[in-house]
Amino acid sequence: MKSKLSKKKVEELRKRLTRKPQLVWDVLGSGDKKRVFEFAERYKGFLDAAKTEREAVLAIEAFAKKTGFKDITKVRTRTGNKFYKINKHKNIALAVLGKDPIASGINLVVSHVDSPRLDLKQNPLYEEVDLVFLKTHYYGGIKKYQWLTRPLAIHGTVMKQDGSSLNMRIGESDNDPVFTIADILPHLARKIQADKKVSDAFEGEKLNVLAGSLPIGNDETKERFKLAVLEYLYSAYGLIEEDLMSAEIEIVPAGSARDVGWDRGLIGAYGQDDRVCAYASLEALCEVNRPARTAVAMFMDKEEIGSDGSTGAKSRFLEEFVADLVETTGQEAREKVLRSCLTKSKALSADVNAGLDPDFQEVHEKRNAARIGYGVCITKFTGSGGKYGSSDANAEYLAEIRKLFNDNKVVWQTGELGKVDEGGGGTIAKFLAIYGMEVLDCGTPILSMHSPFEIASKGDIYMTYKACTAFLNSK
After folding, report:
1. What was the pLDDT predicted at 29?
2. How far apart are CA 469 and CA 463, in angstroms?
3. Which residues pair with 384 in a beta bridge?
4. Neighbouring-strand partners of residue 137
5. For the whole prediction, is pTM greater than 0.85?
6. Which domains does the chain have, with CATH numbers?
7. pLDDT per residue over 329-378, tens digit each?
8. Which residue has the higher pLDDT, 284 or 29?
9. b or e along 106-144 (b: 16 or more beta carbons within 10 Å of the residue's beta carbon)?
10. What is d(CA 411, CA 95) in angstroms, rounded to the nearest whole number?
11. Which of 306, 267, 356, 323 is nearest to 112 (CA)?
């Protein structure tokens, strides 16, 4: 019969054999906390500047150029080791060449810079009951009611018939007008909203943005309210109605990223999915100097609608950029070299996961749910149901990343996106896995995902940055 273990021995066994999740704030020292909050301020500035994928690419390019990166399409001689390339204004890739041959593989962090939003239709402008509206088509997974009765801003690019372009950003300055989507008052909402399922009560075709209310001409003037808006667009921007057909105009929440709570430990803002991982990997890569393996960060578009299109992860942009990198080293970008590189590469699909919401714990499996404040989240598989639509990282790669994070004092946790059969979701990971490379989902847990005001912990954001730094510098 075994002897009874002492309390001290039991605690030693517990410490040695079990894993207790670590709260970031318990691990950080006083100096570290200051760095966390300073990083958060830079990140908030990025969020404010980059509310669309085009704006994100411009902000990333500006950051990269300040830290010595050169446009790879304009490099005539093989000088330097920091390069970037932009694809159709909507995604961008950055690289720091390593000491090892590119054919031996790269360390790749891929995030996305598109977020759920409302896009203007091609024929958006119309007049109804002496008010002017803009027709929209929502982009990505949203709860439609969250976009009603809140200040909205217009961001986008208009291509005119003469070939010139116009960038619009209206609703962010204190002196700007804002836009909104009206909602019916509760006194009259019983039959058309209150007695219906949420999915039926709010219709996509009724997400119409209020854009004007003043007339032009007299009461015999046809569509005088719409015409007044068109007259304003022409006088202010030189636009005619047909120009709106060749435009990409996005409706996004107006306002800046804000600290949340008296202690300011959280950030609330639009678009943190997935610009939180984008900014973390951007700062991390720009601090890489001369790594053993070539370090690459890619910022993709179209993730929220399946990664299709010429700027999504299903495009050949990764292959093209790797070919450019090979050529900067004086080698010919032969297919065998590219195939060898991509197969031997290691990747983090840097995307957010759902944090455990205290008011909706029933949709999570709490033992396998990410918690706010407990560090960057490793997600072995995504998909839904029986892991459909997932790349499912292997145990060997998980062990490698786990050791890397532990060695570099990265506070991390694991998580799934809800209970089995409850929900699920997809990321870029499976589109990287087709090359045969190792890939793992890894990112910041957030609350209110896909809402106009997502919430993340400053501690988790900083640990995402530390995770990217450790990975990009690894051998």
Report:
1. 86
2. 10
3. 388, 424
4. 119
5. yes
6. 12-115+270-472 (3.40.630.10), 117-253 (2.30.250.10)
7. 888 889 999 999 999 999 999 999 999 999 999 999 999 999 999 999 99
8. 284
9. bbbbbbbbbbbbbbbeeebbbbeeeebbbbbeebbebeb
10. 26
11. 306
